[in-house]
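Backbone shape codes
____________________
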Amino acid sequence: MGLFPLAQAASAVPGGTPLAPAFSVDGGRYEQAVSVELKAKQGETIRYTTDGSIPTKSSPTYAGKPIRITADTNLTARAFKGNQAGAFKSEGYLIREGEQPIARMMIVSDVHIGDYEADRHRWSSYFDTFAGVLGTPDAILSNGDMINDNWDGRGKDHQLTARIFKENLERKGMNATQVLMAYGNHDATLAEVRAGYPKEWFPDSGAGYYRTDVKGIPIVTVNTEDYSPAQAAWLREQLGQISANPAYRDLPIIVGGHRPVPGTVMDGQQTSNPRLAEDLSKFPRAIYFSGHSHLNLNDPRSIHQKNFTAVNDSSSSYIEIDHGYQMLDAEGRLANRFETPTAQGLAVEIYPGRTVINRINLNADLHDMYTGGKWSANWKPPFQSDGTLAGKPWEIKTAGSDAQVVENFTYTDANRNRTAPRWTSSHPLSAQTGKDGQLALRVEQAADDELVYHYKVRVTRADNGDEVLSTKVANRFDVVPAAGSMDIPLPVTRDGVKYRAEVVAVDAQGNQSPVAVDVLN
């Protein structure tokens, strides 16, 4: 996916331009292929994409014949009236034919609810997405940081979270859906967590950890804020009992906790509790879901396998990328950023011998993290991207002996991707005129079999080699749909002076494209 310039955001389309086309079939999970019809006003032409990009004048034209969706797809449609491009809309489709899952779970993390009026509309949209991708889930697992307490007396905010969840469970008819919570570093005290929710949502025995089942699937919830020797012994005992029980043969052992453990997802960023990693390593069927880091699900490093499987939950409040990059802000300026106000979750389906994990966007619209210099992560629906897919599904095989389970691991360090991004245009760089006559470097999006993570950019004066800009620009791969180019402002005016631009596209594994070079003036 490419960077999504503000000028192409649906919310920025001026009055009188075409509205987003209507879809005959909403996005969501379907038991068979679906045929989607698109509709716009008379005199408008609809163009569409199925690769996650923003439709352009060169995209396929919708000629009235329904679009057949036979596999997991993000479908984006946009209306054009002459040369005038309108708003667009994306829908995500999950196609699941044949076998029915034993259990369906929605897993989220880092909810950070703190204001009923500010948060309830957003969570109403999120529950609509839950229902769209899973119908009535058997469980909703929330792996810590339900509120945003910084030891400043906000423990009663758990009651707000409970209220919002209860209202949406009732509204969506999810009366049989189990809610299970883990304890996080922003959840105040364990006593306040217990006081905020029904006992069955947090059925611990006093130390913040517990075990339960969902439709016969074993669920173990750990307290990563105090991984004591007593808890470690308890966990090993529970995992041992589950592994030895024939009733759980070939099934995953779902383990939920707030903090990731070292050497796993995102190469172990923001991790703790190496002893927990050691204890889990003896149980290959364990799938450890964790949050805390807010790191995004689009990144292939969000799943990791060695002795067990570790999966990053991302965040349902705002997500992060690695530190050390710049992004284009809502005004098209380069800014030091690592947070984006998008939100994600995991739709997990468990079958005999395998678990399928779908990466779901709860909100992947383009917004900036700051408005007028103020934090503004709490964007309100409607979201034109809710329910879209943040990547291909991950599949974990759990059938057979421990040795067979490990042998079937796919997401290992040894299997990390080695394919470098590639430029799809022979001239991917060009000069543009930005605000106030400023020179801007336009970069046509490179392609990668996973995602382009960032661009290394260096611009110098052509006559004397003086450096004008040297930076790494993060690619907004978290936004759906994505444009095919990005305009990077340079701190010089466009006055005929020539500049040499060098750009390298880099994926999440560090694989690099050839250097694209051009002279700008």
Q: What stands out?
A: The mean pLDDT is 94.
